[in-house]
């Protein structure tokens, strides 16, 4: 398989070389190759009941993840494209237990939840061909067991116990109120950077005073998301306001003509009378109780209150309105941007780490080590080293100017941007600025504060002296 993206192509060539060393290295190359050629893996994390599973369903386009007001998700589940619909329950001991499960069934668990690392779930889905989605139990100090499952799969499992790790390339962090200190602390332990971690302000349809309040909750949430993005800029790239509920309803085919007709019948009813109707035990002549419950479950208060006019135009119109209001389009765009640009660098980092690991344990260590070094030196993978330095600096000194400088280099799409100048700056100005930055770095290298900073300075000096033109990777085949 060939790929136009230079990062993919370079790694692919490297893995072919690894396979050519012979013996069991062909099998290793194959197993590492699956990391390279599978769709980006996005993990959804956040507080208990923040709406994670609902959002996962919306993104998959099918109601596969259990969502409920009372029941909590209790296993980490990896949703990926594949036929037939099936699952494998992976124990914390690394053993896999295959189970059969229909497309709309819950996965039967052959182990007690504390013994489960995660569940691999396959189902045929076009959406999952582009993106593997990982649902996690909510973070909460009240449900220690579930919380542990998420932490184990996302943090502890990461480099040490590969069998128990979910290996995500990007993360979506969901919150419906200001994140707490312990949540921010959890995020800082995840192996992600603000470049591949996206914030979602969930339940936007009930934000603030909610649907019946004085302000439109969606507008209010959008404003708040801008503030949160500024506040959390050391953690997430952006904050997108979302109504997962409206997105789920409009993206999973749950909404029928019957629902639209029922809602359309309430058009023109004054708000107070509408509230009374939904609260009353004896309003069956207006709408039967079960229909009212269904409508609230599908649309939420906001959708019921504001979707009535549109509903009179039929289910397709109501569905389009829900999609538009839900904010899911904005989230998909942000996800695409972060997975195409930064998840691939993150993935390249994981592949090089696998090679490093292999070089410690394998008899052909010399050959593997020199292959890894050769790959790290390849121009297409120059940014992987910058990313690794950025990750280390985020852990040791997130406020340092070097950390900022690394981020500038990573996010730039032009040579001018890399040295912090506007993209259209003239070449002489770019050269002069690179020289100035080199001088500063050489000064700093005389008195650095940490090993991470030492390494970062070496990388930055290399970046400014032998710049390769930044490329915008194309998305993996889907
Ligand atoms: N109004 C409204 N309700 C939502 C939204 N998203 C989820 N809910 C409701 O909130 C409840 C919990 O949703 P889930 O998706 O199960 O939340 P979760 O984060 O997966 O919960 P845990 O897995 O238990 O941590 C359900 O009753 C959902 O219908 C939303 O955007 N708006
Ligand atoms: Mg859940």
Automatic annotation (TrEMBL):
InterPro entries on file: GTP-bd, P-loop_NTPase
GO molecular function ontology, one term from the record: GTP binding
Domain G as annotated: residue spans: 41-184
Matches recorded under Pfam families: MMR_HSR1 (PF01926)
Domain of life: Bacteria
Protein name per Swiss-Prot or TrEMBL: 50S ribosome-binding GTPase
Native species: Gordonia aquimaris
């Amino acid at each position: 398989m060939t790929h136009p993206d230079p990062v993919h192509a370079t790694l692919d060539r490297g893995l072919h070389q690894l396979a050519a060393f012979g013996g069991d290295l062909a099998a290793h190359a194959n197993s590492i190759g699956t990391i390279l050629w599978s769709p980006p893996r996005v993990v959804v994390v956040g507080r208990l009941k923040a709406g994670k599973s609902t959002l996962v369903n919306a993104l998959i386009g099918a109601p596969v993840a259990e969502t409920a007001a009372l029941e909590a998700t209790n296993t980490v589940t990896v949703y990926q494209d594949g036929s037939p619909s099936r699952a494998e329950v992976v124990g914390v001991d690394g053993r896999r237990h295959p189970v059969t499960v229909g497309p709309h069934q819950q996965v039967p668990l052959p182990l007690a939840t504390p013994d489960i690392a995660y569940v691999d779930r396959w189902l045929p889905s076009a959406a999952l061909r582009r993106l593997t989605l990982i649902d996690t139990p909510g973070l909460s100090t009240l449900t220690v067991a579930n919380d542990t499952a998420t932490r184990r799969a996302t943090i502890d499992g990461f480099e040490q116990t590969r069998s128990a790790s979910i290996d995500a390339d990007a993360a979506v962090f969901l919150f419906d109120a200001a994140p707490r200190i312990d949540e921010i602390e959890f995020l800082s332990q995840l192996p992600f950077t603000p470049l591949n971690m996206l914030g979602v302000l969930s339940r936007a349809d009930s934000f603030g005073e909610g649907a019946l309040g004085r302000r439109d909750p969606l507008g209010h949430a959008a404003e708040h998301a801008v503030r949160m993005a500024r506040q959390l800029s050391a953690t997430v790239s952006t904050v997108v306001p979302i109504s997962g509920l409206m997105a789920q309803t409009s993206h999973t085919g749950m909404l029928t003509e019957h629902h639209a007709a029922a809602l359309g019948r309430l058009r023109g009813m004054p708000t107070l009378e509408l509230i009374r109707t939904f609260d009353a035990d004896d309003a069956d002549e207006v709408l039967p109780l079960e229909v009212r419950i269904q409508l609230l479950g599908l649309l939420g208060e906001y959708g019921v209150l504001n979707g009535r006019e549109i509903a009179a135009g039929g289910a397709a119109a109501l569905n389009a309105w829900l999609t538009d209001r839900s904010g899911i389009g904005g989230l998909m765009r942000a996800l695409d941007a972060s997975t195409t640009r930064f998840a691939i660098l993150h993935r390249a980092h994981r592949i090089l780490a696998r090679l490093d690991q292999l070089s410690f344990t394998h008899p052909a260590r010399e050959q593997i080590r020199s292959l890894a070094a050769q790959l790290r030196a390849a121009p297409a993978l120059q940014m992987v080293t910058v990313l690794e330095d950025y990750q280390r600096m985020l852990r040791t000194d997130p406020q340092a100017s070097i950390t900022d400088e690394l981020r500038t280099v990573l996010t730039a799409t032009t040579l001018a941007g890399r040295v912090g100048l506007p993209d259209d700056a003239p070449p002489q100005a770019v050269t002069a600025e690179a020289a100035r930055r080199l001088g500063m770095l050489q000064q700093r290298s005389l008195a650095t504060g940490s090993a991470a900073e030492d390494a970062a300075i070496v990388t930055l000096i290399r970046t400014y002296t032998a710049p390769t033109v930044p490329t915008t990777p194309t998305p993996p085949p889907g």
